[in-house]
Amino acid sequence: MDLSNGIENLPIIVETEIYRELSDVFKYVPCNIPGPGTSSEEFVAEYDGCACGAVCDGGLACSCMKQYGHSYDAKGSLLDVVVGSAFQRPIVECNRSCSCTPLCRNRVVQKGIRFRLQVFRTRRKGFALRTLDAVPKNAFVCEYAGEVLTVAEAGRRVNAQTAADANYVLAVREHVGGESVTTTYVDPARVGNVGRFLNHSCCPNLVMMPVRVNTAVPRLALFAACSIRAGDELCYDYAGVRSQGSADEDAARGEGHGGDCQGASWTMGQGGGCHGAASVRQQEFISESAFGDRERLKPCYCGATCCQKYLPFDAFLFDV
User: Fold this and answer.
1) Which of 259, 222, 225, 261 is nearest to 140 (CA)?
2) Taking the CB of residue 12, how many other CB atoms lie within 10 A of it?
3) In this structure, are strands 140-143 and 146-149 parallel, antiparallel, or unpaired?
4) What is the DSSP letter of 125?
5) What is the pTM of this model?
6) For the residues 57-73, what does the mean pLDDT come to?
7) Pairing of strands 12-13, 117-121
8) 82 SS3 class
9) Is 310 a catalytic residue?
10) Which of 47, 72, 144, 168 is the catalytic position?
11) What residues have CB less than 8 Å from 89, skipping those under 6 apart?
12) Is 144 a catalytic residue?
């Protein structure tokens, strides 16, 4: 069955039993929507469109790319200059006000998924997501979409959880030059998309990148951090970092998939779903308050040699 009910470009494949179980507690949406307390005005188009013609060339004439240049190659994959830099430069796609057509190479995330995905049940990690197609490195896979929350609502939801509850609230903190920091809170627990079913891995095969399309509200896009085989489970690092070297080691042993693991100009924090682990730099994301309240930490079952045993959790991200 199709979990998205025809909303996505391709069916999100799921067994009938799982479809029925989720249909009672989960509403599928393809992209972010305003949650309680979030103004719908933030989702109104606010970027001016370019006047490049059918396809943008990334030159100074394109208002969408004149400051940062191309983010994608002709096949729609992220350029290495974007994912390989110590500080990720902003990704701004052409928008609905632009004169260019859907053939423009600067329209990728907005086009939706291009690979067949399947939600399945695991023995110890709850639900999970895998690809049924081979995915080339740097290709867009899916978004992590749901309700965009205020910090107050995000904190309320996280603090209302018990030790047995799964937490899907994700905080993405972007450092915008100088000391300016913008934090976006997204919760797909009840209303969200296929990204809700992604598990954490210490050596992930996906990397998350904030992408702007029509508004300043980022779309949390997940790209392949390496070449991914058909049938592989898809995972990302809930803390927003990838461990240098360990992923390549696991790939060689057949225990996971690696990639060029680099830092970025943004960080994430998440209490995690049924599964999770901390990155090699976990001390940056597991706060002292979490260690003082160990029942809030969730065990990891990723099986990677670089496994850090616990899911990253930064309680300060949800302070009101």
Assistant:
1) 222
2) 23
3) unpaired
4) S
5) 0.84
6) 81
7) parallel
8) helix
9) no
10) 144
11) 68, 82, 265
12) yes
Give exposure, 119-135, as e/b (b: 16+ Cβ within 10 Å). Answer: beeeeebebbbbbeeeb
Report angle CA 18, 19, 24 to the nearest 5 degrees. Answer: 105
Is the sign of the CA dihedral 57, 61, 65, 66 positive or negative? positive
Query: To which residue do tokens 């190479």 refer?
Result: 105
- Choose, from 47, 185, 236, 238, the residue flagged as catalytic: 238
22 is written with which tokens? 């989720």
Beta bridge partners of 208: 222
Q: What is the mean pLDDT of residues 197-224?
A: 93
Does residue 225 contact residue 207 with C-beta atoms inside 8 Å?
yes
Q: How long a stretch of residues is the chain?
A: 320
Distance CA 199, CA 247 (A): 16
| CB atoms near residue 79 (< 10 Å) | 13
> 223 and 187 in contact (C-beta within 8 Å)?
no
Tell me the H-state helices in the chain: 16-23, 80-83, 151-159, 246-253, 288-291
pLDDT for 248 beyond 70: no
